[in-house]
Design brief:
Strand content: 35-45%
Number of helices: 2
Structural class: alpha/beta
Distance between the termini: 26 Å
Strand order of the largest sheet: 4-1-6-5-8
Largest sheet: 5 strands, mixed
Shape: globular
Length: 124
């Protein structure tokens, strides 16, 4: 049996006080900041590290949005920005504009579920 050292990925929905969503441009398509957890690293720490590295934004207050197995398995978290300067390739997006933008597969559903007022974690 092959044991993978670490295959846990995080995807982070960062929402500011105005309701804007932080996105990263990857090859002309927008997606949420994502990253793999390192051995011994918590999911929350991995998420914060990935967001900072990809966007320049420091986050806090992470909560579970869901577990998404469509494509790459990811723990989807929601967090709020607390500091930082926006890096090149990152942008704040109005959720209402998601239908107009080129998005990576599954991103729209992750955002919509993360913004859902019910706040119940989802499994996909």
């Amino acid at each position: 049996m092959t044991v993978m050292e670490n295959a846990l990925a995080t995807a982070v929905l960062v929402v500011d006080d105005a309701g804007l969503v932080l996105m990263v441009d990857r090859g002309g398509r927008l997606e949420l900041p994502t990253g793999a957890a390192r051995t011994g690293e918590t999911v929350v720490a991995a998420a914060a590290r990935a967001v900072l590295a990809q966007t320049g934004v420091v986050v806090a207050g992470a909560s579970l949005v869901g577990l998404d197995s469509a494509g790459e398995f990811a723990v989807v978290l929601r967090a709020r920005p607390v500091d930082g300067d926006l890096a090149a390739g990152a942008e704040w997006v109005e959720p209402e504009r998601l239908g107009e933008l080129a998005l990576a597969p599954g991103v729209r559903e992750r955002v919509e579920r993360g913004l859902d007022e019910a706040g119940l974690p989802y499994l996909r």
